[in-house]
Amino acid sequence: MNSRLSQIAAQLDSSDTCDRILALVALRQVSAVEAAPLIKGALSDESLRVRSMAVRALGSKPSADADEILIRLLGEDPDYEIRADAAAALGDLKNTKAFQALVRAFFEDTSWVVRFSAAVALGQLQDPRAHEVLIHALRRDESVIQQAAIAALGEIQDLSAVDDLLHFVQAEDWLSRQRLAEALGNLPTPKSQSALSYLSKDEHPQVALAAQRSLQRLQHG
């Protein structure tokens, strides 16, 4: 172990939570092979914040068993924040072997934060099998879950979802309309272009801007 890595390892053993957090930040500059063992050690830290950072770090500095660890945390950890972080990290890894675990979390987890994170991660996997799950998410009452599903359907470029997505053209929540405008930029159909033309005149400037950008992408793509 080189001196820099030894210093970080010692910092992770500090009794000061801030020191341990700074050590995890420092691991961003270390190769995944060197960082992963230290990150895994921090997964059992007494501090929720340190554990949370370690879980997310596995998504960017994975070990060979990172998927297995994160899937276990997603399904079993008693803290909803850790489960949500595990879902997000699985999305970062983009390994489709996490698909079933994310679907299960979406349907079964009691926390909307975890369900939201699972829906976002399903989009990151870009696995077309997510279609039915995400269409179901569109029909949930929670607007944040709907927004995650809209974005995810755009990410997986699910052209068969366009009709379902267009129900949100006049959504009351402007964030839903913005997510729709962004998603439609990945879904090149005549209906998408028509909806984007409409959204480009939206009363909310961020919705209108997103629609204009998506229209340009479709027209020049």
UniProtKB/TrEMBL annotation:
- Which Pfam families does the record cross-reference, listed alphabetically? HEAT_2 (PF13646)
| Xref: SMART domains | EZ_HEAT
GO terms, molecular function = oxidoreductase activity
Which terms in the GO cellular component ontology are assigned? phycobilisome
Which InterPro entries would you find in this protein's record? ARM-like, ARM-type_fold, PBS_lyase_HEAT
Which keywords does UniProt give here? Antenna complex, Phycobilisome
Q: What is this protein called?
A: Phycocyanin operon protein Z
Q: What is the originating organism of this protein?
A: Acaryochloris thomasi RCC1774
